[in-house]
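Problem 12. The chain below contains 326 residues. Write out its predicted structure in token notation.
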Amino acid sequence: MENNWRPTADIDTLKKRAQFLADVRLFFAQHNVLEVETPILSAAAPTAPYLTSFVTGYQPLSGSSKQHYYLQTSPEFAMKRLLAAGSGSIYQIAHVFRNGEQGRLHSPEFTMLEWYRPELSLHQLMDEINALLQQVFGFEPIIRLSYRGVFEFLFKFNVLTCSDDDIIACAKERIGGLPPDLDLDRDGWLALLMSHVIEPKLADLNMPLFIYDFPASQAQLAKVIQDNAGNDVAARFELYIDGVELANGYDELLDANELQRRFESDNQQRKTLGLDQMPIDVNLLAAMISGLPNCTGVAVGMDRLMMLALDKRQIVDVQSFSFERV
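Solution.
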């Protein structure tokens, strides 16, 4: 314990990290994207069942009752309020917090780069990410595959039209050691195949990869559109490098009523799972009703990106201090 005062990243790495951040800011300045800052605390929190927020209490000096606030898991909701107010293209380099997440690729506190582009389509946003990763971080050009295409290549079935039984049978065949009574919904089984089979295969490809057009049930905060075969799909993508998920991008949902329905559905699922229900961000919904412009957006895990760019083994190797040393 006597060395816990020391940083987990060496000083040379921290200098390279600082240069990366400076170069990212220069990239966005050259692309006329405005840097913004938004509050880390919020009275609301994401409802997604897979996210667990840190909660804290604000105690007014007047002695009135304590009020609950949440540390942001992403600056998304506040940034969309700026978009609705007419900010135009914006980006933010923000500290974000996710309770319970810790490991080689996870930390309860980490750095996220998030930006929104009213001018760009989803594939144009992928082009911009491609340019950023090549110019600033030195990565190879990013190839693109549809979610359906990845599953057809690896498993020889159409993941958008097949039955739940087909997916379950595939998972049980390809993933060893699953409990015989494992009970998951369709997206749960797909997530298992992605993490246990697909991501290791992506690592073997040794090239950056966008996966786009996810199943409509995984839309999250994205629009639902039709692909070229007439299937409903989520207008979103994920970026992988060496099998590591680095980014999530969306053609952003604009319908406040639909977003509220998704929030309420998430909270119902949280209740079923025995999780706390989260307060819905009414300010975001009001901003959307006021008029959120057509836009695309993406969130990039900066610690993971720097880890890969600097050929480090784990994200604490690019952080000043790991969670154990705070």
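Discussion. The longest helix spans residues 11-30. Students who got a different answer should revisit the alignment rule from Section 12.3.
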